[in-house]
Amino acid sequence: MAANKEPSTIVPLLSRALHRIRSTPPRIIASPATQPRRAAVAIILRVSPPPNYVFPKPSADPSSPANTPAPSLTEFFQLDWVNAPGARPEILFLRRDKPEAGTDGGRMSGTGPNTREAHVAFPGGKTEDGDEGGLYTAMRQTWEEIGLDLAEASYTPIGQLDDREITTSLGKRLLMILSPFVFLQLTPKTTPVDPSPGTSLHWVPLSALLPRPVGDGPRWSSVSVDASSRLAPRHSTILRLLVRLLVGSMKFPAILIPSSPMSVTADTPDEKTLDVKRAQLETAGSTPPSMKRQRSRYAPDETLKLWGLSLGMTLDLLVHMASPEARLGGAGASMLPPDAEAELLRVPVLAPSLASVFPRFGYPDVNFWIWVFGKRYRAVIRGWEASVRAAGTNDRRINWTGSALTTFYAAVRKALIVVIVVRAIFVFLGVLLGSWVLLWRR
């Protein structure tokens, strides 16, 4: 069922989104003089052809050179194999066994001896002195980390999404500016890769991230983080225990990423193995014994979760699929089925990238006080949703992500002060009451 609906919905929606990204200038956040550090990531997309699609044989005509020019973005989405029934748009995530400190890509403990919960991210990293800009950083880091050369003719840079700010816990201090760049694979076959040790690649269908009836519907979950690890000094055991008792845990929204036998690790030998793995996934057939052995060695059973900055950037990409022509009833709206159009109109409301990256706390009273002090934050969210519904043409000068981050964590700081004071008062009263009862009994 999903394979039949993708050519009529997701492929043209991806085309519309990439054209929007290419034609829409991103919101660039200038680095302040006090913190010039920047980073960049690569969001890589491809359209995987159906496993039974028969490609025409290469022409033997000498006048037809082998190095034909790469298709333009419009020409790419007119190719037969891209629009063939069963073609599937996919996005590349990676999992790092040892992520850099301070990122949201770290692995958390699982619930069983043979399972674990892992966080996925995009290839990328910090800008170095010799880099010629954010695009160069994203391409260099992708090559160094997974061995994929985005400078090849098989890939084309689409554009940049809005910059994002990376801050310390509760948004107190800016750490760096993050720039996400979008790339599209123009060929039906992925070039061989060579991930660094401890890194595995996961090509995930976009249908697993889009709401029904367009996609399969994202499976929402959460990632629990000990609040003391974010709010208390690392080497103060007593203060960490106190914060853990008073504040509890933080739950970040997350999307479950489907496990896949096509996961690629540093030990994957060649392109043929990648194509076989992809064919096995797309046909949903049984995996040969040799593949089962490779899977058990290279891709152990684990729960992959998309959250934090990576989730926010992914949702920024998906929001571009809710096209302005569809919203305004323009000429291009005929490309969307009526049910798909109605569903995508609600994407910014159902899963706004601004609101879906912020945590909730384990104690209900903490969330209540955040709501009490969150009037400015809710106003920012409403303004961002209005901007998205208007195709992003209004208030482009406003840093919505930064404003939401600032106002949300301002409300969190106020709420935590109130909660800690109230809890301290109750503890103090409890001690007094207990002391009075003990003295009265004497």
From TrEMBL:
Domain of life: Eukaryota
Keyword terms: Membrane, Transmembrane, Transmembrane helix
Keyword match DNA damage: no
Coiled-coil intervals: none
Region (Disordered): 98-132
GO molecular function terms noted in the UniProt entry: coenzyme A diphosphatase activity
Domain Nudix hydrolase: 36-227
InterPro entries, sorted: CoAse, NUDIX_hydrolase-like_dom_sf, NUDIX_hydrolase_dom
Transmembrane stretches, start-end: 415-439
Name this polypeptide is given: Nudix hydrolase domain-containing protein
